[in-house]
Design goal:
With 529 residues, this protein is an alpha/beta fold. It contains 18 helices and 19 strands. The strands form 5 sheets. Strands 1, 2, 3, 4, 10, 15 and 16 form a 7-stranded parallel beta sheet that branches. A 4-stranded antiparallel beta sheet has the order 6-5-9-11. Strands 12-14-13 form a 3-stranded antiparallel beta sheet. Helix 15 runs antiparallel to helix 17.
């Protein structure tokens, strides 16, 4: 058996201080669609996600709720973060928590390696610290506060005052890696994507890097430094190291060699610098290979603004899935937003796309094709006769699309890949409208009718294979009427050959995308200023 290509993909590990919103769901779904596609093309795929559970913010929130930090984290992981994965049909291969023993112990292995190599030293640091970001801020990262915070400097992201901290800390010699990083970005422009993200990172590094404070001694909720247990590791270093501790670093050399380096880290653009600057610098210092890509996607905007509970624009994934279902959530965010750029969500848009593209487009197409085969041929799939020019257009499209979509997925252009696949939906609907199989049936031309419905049936099966990484539930439902086995077992790049596992007869199905009562669709919230 030929060796399979490795595809190790990660999401950020999400901070458990609150419950997930659709921005978290968007990242998870994007990673899952890419992972499902690569699994279905035969790659040795591994999807990692998880939770970030240390740091001052967790400690303060747990204390306010009169529980230990670990109890607070356990509660949110089990009641909010793991249910998110089930809600959105995420096929993760692993779920790491930074409180896992495998993580904590092997973080210490990594830190000791950096310490022994001379990349860590002691020093004093004073600066503005945002507890919400768990990050020291530069002056340029601060803005003037408004309302109750007027006259104070606040974090530009959280709009809350920063704290002036002065501590004796351990530092990582990050300043030494500026030239190496700039060389990396120049020689491997694909390392940071998209181009706008890379330009931002290059500009930042060219300004000069400072050494990074990597420990805290003012609180104890974190991983203790192996050479000085009076200090705990800075939560961001702790979090970044999950990408290697989850795949065997420090304890399973064989597993680590199989999975590392990661093919891609998917991150939001607000945490790009951590992944595209700090993370590769740490790996270079440790003498480890770098990931192949860091992809910084855009924000989801509601009412033109980044989501915020305080402004009434925070939306939980279940608010969408309870109305439209998980497949619609997955399809909408992958199709409606150009991956890598900011995108706007509105209830009106998802409702419109659900009806026009899913219910009337794909869902009605499937129902019509199967119903006509059942009606005119008692469910037996007819053989095609001589193909007309119109038939060949469909056949050739079905043969071409898998390769084109695969190329888009290889470049993380999820929305473009899905748009390419959707060409089959639009072409097939147009084909049926133009060929009028119901009129052909009435004329008595059985051979022509058989050719039309065979062509439509074959295209529908290929389409279902190609859409299975995006909409696993609907495609599984439809596949049960088309073929044997699991649709996920058909190689996506060979979708046009799916008929090798086709059933001889088909049957009508329940609607893939049932009509939604318009009264159950909320209105898009207006931000409160």
């Amino acid at each position: 058996m030929a060796e399979r290509d490795s595809f190790f993909i990660t999401t950020p590990i999400f901070y458990v201080n609150d419950v997930p919103h659709i921005g978290h769901g968007y990242t998870e779904v994007a990673a899952d669609v890419l992972a499902r596609w690569h699994r279905q093309r035969g790659d040795d795929t591994w999807l990692l996600t998880g939770t970030d559970e240390h740091g001052q913010k967790i400690l303060r929130t747990a204390t306010a709720n009169e529980v230990t930090p670990k109890q607070w984290a356990d509660r949110l992981v089990e009641n909010a973060w793991k249910p998110l994965l089930a809600t959105l049909d995420i096929s993760n291969d692993d779920f790491i928590r930074t409180t896992d023993e495998r993580h904590e112990e092997n973080v210490k292995v990594f830190l000791q390696r950096l310490y022994d190599r001379g990349y860590i030293y002691t020093g004093e640091f004073e600066g503005f610290y945002c507890v919400g970001c768990e990050e020291y801020k530069q002056e340029s990262d601060l803005v003037d506060g408004e309302g109750e915070f007027a006259g104070q400097k606040v974090c530009a992201i959280h709009s809350k005052p920063v704290e002036l901290l002065k501590e004796k800390n351990y530092f990582f010699k990050m300043s030494e890696f500026g030239p190496q990083l700039l060389k990396l970005y120049e020689e491997h422009p694909e390392f940071v994507q998209p181009a706008s993200a890379r330009n931002e990172v290059v500009s930042f590094v060219r300004q000069g890097l400072t050494d990074l404070s990597i420990s805290r001694s003012s609180f104890d909720w974190g991983i203790k430094l192996p050479w000085d247990e009076s200090h705990v590791l800075y939560v961001w270093i702790d979090a970044l190291l999950n990408y290697i501790t989850a795949v065997g670093y420090g304890q399973d050399d064989e597993a680590f060699a199989r999975r590392w380096p990661a093919q891609v880290h998917l991150v939001g653009k607000d945490i790009l610098r951590f992944h595209a600057v700090i993370w590769p610098a740490l790996l270079l210092a440790a003498g480890l290979e770098l990931p192949k890509h860091v992809f910084g996607h855009g924000w989801l905007l509601v009412g033109g603004e980044k989501m915020s509970k305080s402004k009434l624009t925070g939306i939980a994934p279940t608010q969408i899935t309870d109305v439209f279902g998980s497949d619609a959530f997955r399809y909408y965010f992958m199709r409606a937003i150009s991956f890598g750029h900011d995108g706007s969500f509105s209830w009106e848009d998802i409702a419109s796309r659900y009806e026009s593209e899913l219910a009337n487009g794909y869902g009605n197409l499937a129902s019509r094709v199967l119903a006509m085969i059942e009606r005119y041929f008692d469910g037996a799939v007819p053989e095609a006769g001589e193909l007309s020019a119109a038939d060949r257009v469909i056949v050739e499209l079905v043969e071409a699309v898998p390769t084109i979509a695969d190329a888009h997925f290889a470049e993380f252009k999820i929305n473009e890949a899905l748009a390419e696949i959707w060409r089959i939906v639009d072409a097939l609907n147009g084909y049926i409208t133009e060929q009028e199989p119901w009129a052909v049936a009435k004329s008595g031309d059985r051979e022509r009718l058989a050719t039309i419905l065979h062509t439509a049936w074959h295209a529908l099966g290929a389409l279902t294979v190609l859409l299975s990484p995006v909409m696993p539930k609907a495609t599984a439902q439809l596949w049960s009427s088309l073929a044997t086995g699991d649709v996920r077992d058909v190689i996506v790049t060979e979708a046009a050959e799916w008929q090798r596992v086709a059933l001889d007869t088909v049957h009508a199905i329940e609607p893939l995308f049932p009509r939604v009562d318009a009264s159950t669709v909320p209105e898009t919230p207006v931000p409160q200023h």
